[in-house]
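User: Some background: our group keeps a shared notebook of sequences we're curious about, and every so often someone picks one and asks for a predicted structure to add to the entry. Today it's my turn. The entry only has the sequence so far, pasted here. Could you supply the structure so I can complete it?
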Amino acid sequence: MLAVFQAGGVQGLSGTGSLRLAMTFLKEQCGAKACLNSKPTWGNHLLMFRHLHYEDIREYRYWDPSTKGLDFSGMLVDFRVNIAHACRRAFRVGSAVSYSLQVLVNMFRRFNHKKPAQKEN
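Assistant: Of course. Here's the predicted structure to add to the notebook entry:
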């Protein structure tokens, strides 16, 4: 679908059930071997990835306990590192998917985010 720039959608009844359907589809139909999992996450999410034999399970920052909110800059850094890793390992040079991911990598490289200000005690 990516080669011709088409998209599709599916609806599931629950968060975990929908995630399981997506994991299974990506593994069995698209040959996915790697995944990104938020940190923290529900314990059953990692178990499902392992049960489906994903070979490369990576984490990205999501929650900042000090602010009790989204760790946006940490998440962007982790996404940039993981997308760059995917471009190097998973896709043929010149493929439509490789090109799309490279565009994302270049976008993240241009994004000059600042570290959050340190709280003083």
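Suggested note for the entry: The CA atoms of residues 80 and 108 lie 6 Å apart. Helices lie at 15-30, 43-51, 72-89, 96-110.
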